[in-house]
Design brief:
Largest sheet: 5 strands, antiparallel
Shape: globular
Strand order of the largest sheet: 2-3-1-4-5
Radius of gyration: 14 Å
CATH architecture: 2-Layer Sandwich
Number of domains: 1
Length: 107
């Protein structure tokens, strides 16, 4: 357990409490605005989640964001993906589970 994990409360997944957890891989395209990345990361922070990996690149007026988050049931990962899609600055979200390639949700 890391120092950060010891001090963070956990938020149980009421929909998938008995579901196996996975690593969710999100690929997003968002407008290159100063607050776009903060808005996306805030959705994870509100669930007490810290990404395993975060890669961001800007190309012209767009941000290409890749996030990997562990410890999620597939349902919870999908709910978070839908919340990302609802952000006004996000143009598209693709959710993949690296363990089961071929499972995708496009927005």
């Amino acid at each position: 357990m890391t120092v950060h994990e010891a001090h963070l409360p956990t938020r149980t997944d009421s929909w998938g409490a008995h579901q196996p957890t996975t690593v969710a891989h999100y690929q997003l395209v968002a407008e290159a605005e100063p607050d776009s990345l903060c808005r996306v990361l805030n959705l994870l922070a509100m669930q007490y989640l810290i990404p395993l990996r975060l890669d961001v690149g800007r190309q012209d007026d767009l941000l290409h964001i890749e996030l990997r988050v562990d410890g999620l049931s597939w349902h919870r990962a999908d709910v978070i993906g839908n919340k990302m899609r609802n952000l006004i600055c996000v143009l598209s979200v693709e959710l993949r589970n690296p363990a089961t390639l071929g499972v995708a949700a496009n927005g």
